[in-house]
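Re: beginner question about structure tokens

> Can someone show what the tokenized structure looks like for a real chain? I only ever see the sequence side.

Sure, here's an example I had lying around. Input first:
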Amino acid sequence: MKKILVMHGPNLNLLGEREPGVYGTDTFESINAEVSARANELGFECEVFQSNSEGALIDKLHAARLDCAGVVLNAGAYTHYSYAIRDAITAVKIPVIEVHISNVHSRDEFRHTSVISPVCRGVIAGFGKNSYLLGLEALKYIIEGEA
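And the corresponding structure tokens:
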């Protein structure tokens, strides 16, 4: 069974509490449980990781290159300015799917630009927790050579 990594960036550990009008009322734990279950249905072993620290996210991406077939990444606010995460994505040479719970293009102007999108295999945004599930589906197609 191939292993994949689902990564959550800053403040996503507060899902269910944080701005429910934007991010929904599902908790961080319930979303991770649903993501892990769906990953298993798709034939993946799923590791979930969250950090509010840019360095920890980079370290985890570096480690993923050794034992993961791909990554589903919600980098949170780091999406818009972390060239360090962008460089880490480029360095690991495994497919990374960028996901966002909200439609970032319908929000603040600064959220309209992603510095990581150009080095990710694809972007899924605006489908709530389902953005993660769609990211898993996309990763499956990529890993199996169908996309």
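Each token stands for a local structural state, so reading them left to right follows the chain. Residues 39 and 46 are 6 Å apart (CA to CA).
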